[in-house]
Amino acid sequence: MLTEFIITSLIVIATPGTGALYTIATGLANGRAAAMVAAFGCTLGILPHMAAAMAGLAAVLATNETAFNILKFAGALYLIWMAISIWRDRSLLAPSGEAQRRGSLETIRHAILINLLNPKLSIFFLALLPQFVHPDDPGALPAMAGYGLAFMAMTFAVFALYGIFAAMTRDRVLSSARLTNLIRRVFAAGFLALGIRLALAGR
């Protein structure tokens, strides 16, 4: 059962999404330490969804269309705002060390909001956890918490690897103004596409 959970979780986590994209962008812009902070922030953003699934609140999102849409459109608008900000912010991947570094708290705040405003995560946990822990079993809540924390640990590890790899290529990437402008626009387009995808997503 644990092996199945790990395989399922790794497939979901390794699939590039908003958190991975943000961590990679942070690693390219500000280096390895900042990428680790972004990975940590994205991991923290999972915690409310896990808690909601354990408390049964995720079921409300799954059945209440209004609540789901409010959170969904808030998340979509945030991603679209990030896309516009990245497109306009030429200092984000400026060459020759000209990039303005974001503080750790700002990086964590953005990372948490990216995951917090995605209602699909709560529904994912609502669908995932009962496959491995029956809600009526004694000790179900501690077991669900254990699985959830394991999912968070794997998320941090995978995102950290993404960020470290991006940071390793940072100097080579930032040496070319043309390449940095292209990558910045690709990231902006990526966030825009993910925002539109979230806005159009159903329960």
From TrEMBL:
GO cellular component, one term: plasma membrane
GO molecular function: homoserine transmembrane transporter activity
Top-level taxon: Bacteria
Membrane topology field: Multi-pass membrane protein
Keyword Cell membrane: yes
Transmembrane domains' residue ranges: 6-25, 37-61, 67-87, 108-129, 149-170, 182-200
Alphabetically ordered keywords of this record: Cell membrane, Membrane, Transmembrane, Transmembrane helix
Chief location category: membrane
Compartments where found: Cell membrane
Key word Transferase present: no
Similarity remark: Belongs to the Rht family.
Name of the molecule in the record: LysE family translocator
